[in-house]
Amino acid sequence: MRIALFPGTFDPFTNGHLDIVEKGLGLFDEVVVAVGENASKKTMFDLETRMKWISKCFENEPRVKVTQYSGLTIQFCNEVNATFILRGLRTIGDFEYEKQIAMVNADLDPSVQSVFVLSEQKYTAVSSTVIRDLILHGGNYAPYLPKAVTIDVKPV
Ligand code: ADP
After folding, report:
1. Atom number of ligand 1 nearest to Cα 124
2. Residues 6 or more apart whose Cβ sits within 8 Å of residue 110
């Protein structure tokens, strides 16, 4: 069985992330969406909320599993028997960053292969960072988020 890990912060999970998972389902038998828990990285949404949203997005897709992890991504791959790491590419900037991570991961464990999926053109401008800004300042973020990602923010 081909299992791919899709690791990320998903703060919050966007249409761009959703697209990468859906494309991953065409390549792998199972996609494990792994929400990274990084104590030193401050997020807008807590781990529980981020996981709840992602689970809701895929409630009718048994081939997607949602889980949390901390520590090295490559170690977590071994824990869940993932032999692929799935990542999305929007820009050349993403490429440079992702390549660096993938090279180090390949050194750590050559049996796990990183696979990159290109973002759809319409999602190349979608980032969790920009969406957090829209949420914070009352901009219209709805077009960039899956329906299951319901944000309860008080108007500013
Ligand atoms: P991280 O903190 O690990 O970068 P993110 O949640 O920001 O986590 O992103 C997880 C993965 O999703 C990364 O591979 C990133 O390139 C990809 N990604 C983020 N936004 C998009 C998008 N709009 N289209 C395609 N891939 C995306």
Report:
1. 23
2. none
Q: How far is CA 88 from CA 79, 93, 118, in A?
A: 22, 12, 6
The C-alpha atoms of residue 112 and residue 53 are separated, in whole angstroms, by 28
Q: Which of 116, 123, 59 is nearest to 87 (CA)?
A: 116
Residue 114 vs residues 10, 107, 131, 139, 149: alpha-carbon distances, Å: 19, 12, 27, 35, 27
Question: Ligand 1: which of 10, 17, 97 to mutate, judged by most atoms within 8 Å of the beta carbon?
Answer: 17
Per-residue pLDDT tens digits of the chain, which is 156 residues long: 999 999 999 999 999 999 999 999 999 999 999 999 877 778 999 999 999 999 999 999 999 999 999 999 999 999 999 999 999 999 999 999 999 999 999 999 999 999 999 999 999 999 999 999 999 999 999 999 999 999 875 444
Measured from the CB, is residue 65 less than 6 Å from ligand 1?
Answer: no
Tokens coding 87: 């990542």
